[in-house]
Amino acid sequence: MTPKQRPETFTVTQTSPPRILLTGVILELTLATAFIHFSLGGTLFLLNAAGYLALGAAYLVAAIAPTPAIRRLSWLPKLGLAGFASVTILAYLVVGPYFTLGWVTKGIEVAIVTLVVADLLFQTDAGRASRRPPTSA
């Protein structure tokens, strides 16, 4: 390898297997926490479940839609889902009631926030990688 050549690096693109797996796990966790909130009943829990379902659907559309306008704004549902999960965690810590299923749900929501942040970082890195100038041989 000459000094001008760079080693090949692996970038995570929108359709790479790690990105598809990450999106699938985020959607499954979102459906799980929506189901838990739905099963608890009550207006607040039902609204929380509806919020998770709506944001999960928006996340899915942003992940699979081929149009450039939707791809350009694909960060918005990701940020919305992470923010919604964060607010739900904070509200639980402030209001309660504290019980085992609540803590399990908070664990799922922490995982959602963590994985969405990872997905946003992958998206940012993939955007930078695609704008690099080509290297000459």
- Largest sheet at a glance? none
Q: Tell me, what's the shape?
A: elongated
Q: Name the poorly predicted regions.
A: none
Determine the number of helices (DSSP H or I, runs of at least 4 residues). 5
Radius of gyration: 18 Å
Terminal Cα span: 10 Å
Structural class: mainly alpha
How much of the polypeptide forms β-strand, as a percent range? Answer: under 5%
Kindly state the number of beta strands.
0
| Helix-strand topology string | HHHHH
* Mean pLDDT, all residues: 86
Quaternary state reads single chain
Q: What's the number of structural domains?
A: 1
- The helix fraction, in percent, is over 70%
Describe the protein.
The chain is mainly alpha-helical. The protein is built from 5 helices and no strands. It has helices spanning 17-40, 43-64, 68-72, 75-95, 100-130. Helix 1 (17-40) packs antiparallel against helix 2 (43-64), helix 1 (17-40) packs antiparallel against helix 5 and helix 2 runs antiparallel to helix 4 (75-95). The protein is elongated and about 60 Å long. The termini are close together. The model has no long low-confidence stretch (mean pLDDT 86).
